[in-house]
Structures are given as structure tokens and as C-alpha cells.
């Protein structure tokens, strides 16, 4: 986005507003001037995306914002305007405050456990190791399974009355089947299943980044007397910076909207101990028909994602202007 | 190439292998438990959860294979994934072409709007989306899943394709123009064929995200005959909650298409994910 476009007629915006068009005789082959054909093409090419995006992505956000100001069961038009009551209700509700706390716990666990493990495995698979291609394929495989499939599989793995759960319990010396039934442990159990599915993604990202670092850098560090750990900490780690920042970003945004896995694994229970914002929103919106309140939760989720993303881009990703996923490399 | 390693190196390598095998086991064992569990009856599952079945009971798999529900779920998932992918890649390719190759007022603003769209997950929009779709009469209609999926896939697809389109030298377009190609001809006959690798990448990403989508079909389809595979798996678990072996068989069968697709398209998938992050 910061690089100028390479096409001669695609300079800084605004050129289109030039007096457009010479007659047919004035059409130039050099493409320096927008011709009527190009303007028509522009409209035709942009239309499908704009229509889809406006109608199905932007409009819902506006609708949610509007509905969140009403007490509304989702049928007919919202009429009972209650201002910001839905928002104050959410922040006063222990369940919703629990959601925020659970999100925070999951984010901290992801950053402290999942990402370092993924990075460690990526460094490991960067070594000349026989069979590493097979390891890589296996580690990444869970990422292609849907969250629902994963959740059902683990429901059965930990099913207490069918053996495997009992076998794990005997092995661990604790009741493994109970981890999903105990409000004190359920969140950590959910975290483990989420990590099972997603660590491979982060590993792949780190591996790709690691392989882009020229060998000579590490070799030079070692020649200068750095130990393997020093070479990693002082050479490799800084160069992985952009990937680390993006992984943190994906992890946080992913956690804010976590739904499928929790919905199928625990339904948010027991007694709301593993409930996330998305699950609460779904309960109120689709089960109890408190659409106004559920919309307020949607908007809170949206604002949290947006504010986090904007601050993160400003402060951490700095020069990236094109969007969350397109860091062009390190600033320094 | 490892034969000449000294003992210290060999010891280190052994350690690395042990770590990899341990992590691999964490991934493989639950899946393995599912695969062989599907060949057991529930009695065997209680007494012998991890060993090989004795005797092998193929009934669970056979039953699912011969009942129509599983195939119907697969068919719906395929239809919806292919249609969503087609819509999102077609629309995004056209927009990315404009964003990469045209100069017009407001271009950067539009690109930014699409980029912000990366932060609108289904979970945030699902409720108003449901209300909109209900208003448009698209509930229990595959378009009610296809179009929103395509819309939500636009940002990432546009961003990846735009970057690729920009990397094609301007001389190519000038040459095409000299040969009498208009913008449509250039797009269709030059740009798209050149962009095949990038199109493959974004298609794979779109297919996988459609295949795994759960929340949207969950609210759009009340009619079982439209259910996709994730809905089918969840419903099957509820329906046969005390027949663990049968549910295991269903889960395993539902993994096969995704894992098979991964086997075929591993390069595009991994390249797409790491590429989209690196830019």
C-alpha cells in the first residue's frame, strides 16, 4: 500500500477526475489517461465485492448496533428503546464478566504456553532431522479438522464410562473425565483441546519465517563465538519478530470470538465456567430471544476486536497499513 | 547423511526425535483411538480402549456408509464449499484487479474498509446476519450460507490477490493494450491465467474455511436435509450419545475428506497461510 503502483496510469488517486474523455479519436494507447472503457470496467469489477461486503458484512454490524439499543425479541421491529441499558446490564452480569475473565485467561495461556511451544517445535523441525517432513505433516494435520469434529472426538476421548477416559485417569492418577465436569478445571481442558488443534498453524508460520532467515547470519554469530542459545536469542528471535507479533494478534482475535469448540465441548458449562462471549451471545440471541441484549454483546466483541486491532497496529505493527495480515517485514 | 555423526550429535538427534515422537503421539493417539474405536463395540471400548479390536466389528462404519445421512451431509458440504469458493474468488479477483491496477479517488479508503473486514468474524455478525437472512427469505436456503461465507472471505482473498496482481509488471498490461486488449480482455486472458498459483492458494483457504464453518449453517439450516458435515457430526453425537463406538465411526469418517484434501493441497494450504501472513 505504501509502494507506488507500478502501472504508469495508476499514480496517486484522483487522476480519474481529469476531464475524462476525449472522443473516440482521442483514445491513447499509452494508457496514461483513463478511458471510458476503464471507468466502466472499474464499476463492473468492483460491484460484486462491494455489494456482498456492504450487504452481508457491514450492514449486520450496523443492525447489531441499532438493535443493541432496544429491548427486542427479534420479531417485528424494535420499538422499546432503552438506550445503553443492554450494555450496563452486560457489564453488571456475573456471567458476562466471567466471559471476559475466561477470554483473558485463554489469551494469557495461549501467549505463555501455546506460542512458545509452537516456536520451539518450529526451531526443532528446522534442524536437519530425518523424517522431519513427516513430523511437520502430522503436527499441522489437526488444523484442517473442523473445531466441531475435534470437540466431538475429545468429548469421546474423555468420556468417563467408555474406557479411554478411565485409562487416562489411571495413568494420570486423577479423574480425567472429570476435567470437563469440574468448574475449576474445565477452562484449562478447553485450552488444551484448542491448542491441540491450533499449535500446528503457529508452528508452520514460525517455520516459514525461520527458513527465510539466511543461514549466514547464524553461522556468523557462531563464528563470533556465540553459543547456540545466544545465536537464537540475539539473531533468530529478533528476526522472527514480525511473525511473533502476527501470531499474538491472530491468537487474541481468535480467542475473543471462540465459539464452535466451546459450544460442542461444554456448551459453556458447567455453571458458565467455560462460557465465552460468543457462547453467551448465542444463548441469548438464539435460545432466549433476547436479541437486543445479545446484539449488545456482539457489539462489545466487535469493539474489543477493533480497539485491540487498531492499538496493536498502531503500537506494535506500526507501519502496516494494509491490514492485520499483511505485515511486510520488520520496520527497523 | 547421519552415519558419520559423532556420539554427541547422535545423542542430540535421538533426543530431538523423542520430542517429536512424543508430540506426534499426542496428536495421533486420540485419532487412533477414534479409528480403531469405530471397529469395536461398546463393551470392548470399556475393557480395551486402546488395543486392537477383538473381534473387529465393521458394523458401525458399514451402517454409516450405507445410510444416506452421511453422504447427504458430505454432498451439502461439498456443494456449499465449492459455490462459496467460486463466488468469493471471482468477486475478489475482480476487485483485487481494480485495487492493484486502477487509480481512482477513494481507492485506499475502500481497501482499508475491506482490510478492517478481517476483524469482523462470524461470531460478531451472526445474530444480525441471521435477522437479515430471515428478512431476505434465505433461511433453509444454501445461498444463505454461501453468500455470507463469500462476503466474509473477501478481505483476505482480495489482499492476497492484490499483492500478486501488483507483482505482474506493467509492461505486460501495456503489451496487451497495444495488442488491442481492453481491461476485460486483459483480466480474463492475461491476468487470471498468470495468477493461477495465487488463485489456487486463495481457493484452498476458502474451501477449508467453508468446510469447517459451523456457526452459520447452524443458524441458517433448521431443515436437516441441508445440514453440512459439522452439523451432522454434532447432531449424530446428540442422537447416539450412549453409543460411543458408533459416534467414533462417524467422527472418523467425517475427518477423511478434510485429511484427504490436506494430503492433496498441503502445499497451497501451508504456502497460503504463511504467505498471507508474510505478505
From TrEMBL, chain A:
Transmembrane segments: 42-67, 100-125, 137-158, 186-208, 248-271, 291-312
One protein family per Pfam: BPD_transp_1
Coarse class of the protein's main subcellular location: membrane
Subcellular localization(s) per the UniProt record: Cell membrane
Region (Disordered): 1-35
Keyword Transmembrane recorded: yes
Lineage: superkingdom: Bacteria
ABC transmembrane type-1 domain segment(s): 100-312
Keyword field: Cell membrane, Membrane, Transmembrane, Transmembrane helix, Transport
SUPFAM superfamilies in the record: MetI-like (SSF161098)
Topology within the bilayer: Multi-pass membrane protein
Family to which this protein belongs: Belongs to the binding-protein-dependent transport system permease family.
Name of this protein: Sugar ABC transporter permease
From TrEMBL, chain B:
Keywords assigned: Cell membrane, Membrane, Transmembrane, Transmembrane helix, Transport
Domain ABC transmembrane type-1 positions: 74-265
Matches recorded under Pfam families: BPD_transp_1
Gene3D superfamilies for this protein: MetI-like
Membrane topology reported for the UniProt record: Multi-pass membrane protein
Principal subcellular localisation of the protein: membrane
InterPro entries according to UniProt: MetI-like, MetI-like_sf
CDD domains named in the record: TM_PBP2
Keyword Cell membrane in annotation: yes
TM region(s), chain numbering: 14-39, 78-100, 109-131, 143-161, 247-265
Coiled coil residues, start to end: none
Family from the record: Belongs to the binding-protein-dependent transport system permease family.
Name of the protein in question: Carbohydrate ABC transporter permease
Annotated source species: Micromonospora antibiotica
Amino acid at each position: 500500500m505504501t509502494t507506488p503502483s507500478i502501472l504508469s496510469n495508476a499514480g496517486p488517486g484522483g487522476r480519474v477526475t481529469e476531464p475524462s474523455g476525449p472522443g473516440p479519436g482521442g483514445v491513447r494507447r499509452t494508457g496514461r489517461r483513463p478511458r471510458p472503457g476503464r471507468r466502466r470496467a472499474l464499476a463492473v469489477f468492483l460491484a460484486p465485492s462491494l455489494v456482498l461486503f456492504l450487504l452481508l458484512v457491514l450492514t449486520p454490524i450496523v443492525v447489531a448496533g441499532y438493535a443493541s439499543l432496544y429491548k427486542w425479541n427479534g420479531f417485528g421491529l424494535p420499538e422499546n428503546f432503552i438506550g445503553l441499558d443492554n450494555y450496563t446490564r452486560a457489564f453488571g452480569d456475573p456471567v458476562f464478566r466471567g466471559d471476559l475473565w475466561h477470554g483473558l485467561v485463554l489469551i494469557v495461556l495461549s501467549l505463555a504456553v501455546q506460542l512458545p511451544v509452537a516456536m520451539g517445535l518450529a526451531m526443532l523441525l528446522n534442524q536437519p532431522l530425518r523424517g522431519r517432513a513427516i513430523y511437520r505433516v502430522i503436527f499441522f494435520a489437526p488444523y484442517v479438522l473442523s473445531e466441531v469434529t475435534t470437540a466431538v472426538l475429545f468429548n469421546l476421548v474423555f468420556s468417563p464410562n467408555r474406557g479411554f477416559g478411565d485409562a487416562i485417569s489411571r495413568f494420570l492418577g486423577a479423574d480425567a473425565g472429570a476435567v470437563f465436569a469440574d468448574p475449576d478445571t474445565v477452562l484449562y481442558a478447553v485450552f488444551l483441546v484448542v491448542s491441540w488443534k491450533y499449535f500446528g498453524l503457529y508452528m508452520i508460520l514460525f517455520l516459514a519465517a525461520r527458513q527465510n532467515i539466511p543461514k549466514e547470519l547464524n553461522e556468523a554469530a557462531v563464528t563470533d563465538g556465540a553459543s547456540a542459545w545466544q545465536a537464537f536469542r540475539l539473531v533468530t528471535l529478533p528476526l522472527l519478530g514480525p511473525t511473533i507479533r502476527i501470531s499474538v494478534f491472530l491468537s487474541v482475535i481468535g480467542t475473543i470470538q471462540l465459539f464452535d469448540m466451546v459450544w460442542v465441548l461444554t456448551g459453556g458449562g458447567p455453571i458458565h465456567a467455560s462460557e465465552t462471549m460468543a457462547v453467551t451471545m448465542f444463548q441469548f440471541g438464539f435460545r432466549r430471544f433476547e436479541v437486543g441484549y445479545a446484539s449488545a454483546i456482539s457489539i462489545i466483541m466487535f469493539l474489543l476486536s477493533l480497539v485491540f486491532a487498531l492499538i496493536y497496529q498502531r503500537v506494535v505493527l506500526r507501519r502496516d497499513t494494509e491490514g492485520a495480515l499483511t505485515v511486510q517485514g520488520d520496520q527497523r | 547423511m547421519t552415519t558419520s555423526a559423532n556420539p554427541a550429535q547422535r545423542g542430540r538427534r535421538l533426543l530431538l526425535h523423542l520430542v517429536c515422537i512424543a508430540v506426534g503421539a499426542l496428536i495421533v493417539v486420540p485419532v487412533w483411538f477414534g479409528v480403531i474405536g469405530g471397529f469395536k463395540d461398546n463393551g470392548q471400548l470399556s475393557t480395551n480402549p486402546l488395543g486392537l479390536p477383538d473381534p473387529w466389528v465393521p458394523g458401525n462404519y458399514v451402517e454409516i456408509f450405507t445410510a444416506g445421512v452421511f453422504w447427504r451431509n458430505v454432498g451439502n458440504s461439498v456443494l456449499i464449499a465449492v459455490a462459496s469458493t467460486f463466488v468469493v474468488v471471482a468477486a475478489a479477483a475482480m476487485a483485487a484487479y481494480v485495487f492493484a491496477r486502477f487509480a481512482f479517488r477513494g481507492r485506499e479508503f475502500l481497501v482499508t474498509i475491506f482490510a478492517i473486514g478481517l476483524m469482523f468474524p462470524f461470531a460478531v455478525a451472526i445474530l444480525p446476519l441471521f435477522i437479515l437472512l430471515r428478512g431476505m427469505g434465505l433461511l433453509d436456503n444454501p445461498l444463505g450460507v454461501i453468500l455470507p461465507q463469500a462476503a466474509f472471505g473477501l478481505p483476505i482473498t482480495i489482499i492476497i490477490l492484490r499483492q500478486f496482481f501488483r507483482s505482474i509488471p506493467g509492461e505486460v498490461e501495456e503489451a496487451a493494450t497495444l495488442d488491442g486488449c481492453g481491461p476485460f480482455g486483459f483480466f480474463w486472458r492475461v491476468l487470471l491465467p498468470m495468477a493461477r498459483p495465487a488463485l489456487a492458494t486463495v481457493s484452498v483457504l476458502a474451501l477449508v474455511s467453508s468446510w469447517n464453518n459451523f456457526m452459520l449453517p447452524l443458524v441458517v439450516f433448521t431443515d436437516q436435509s441441508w445440514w453440512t458435515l459439522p452439523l451432522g457430526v454434532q447432531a449424530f453425537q446428540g442422537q447416539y450419545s450412549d453409543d460411543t463406538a458408533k459416534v467414533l465411526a462417524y467422527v472418523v469418517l467425517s475427518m477423511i475428506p478434510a485429511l484427504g484434501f490436506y494430503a492433496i493441497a498441503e502445499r497451497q494450504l501451508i504456502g497460503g497461510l504463511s504467505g498471507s501472513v508474510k505478505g
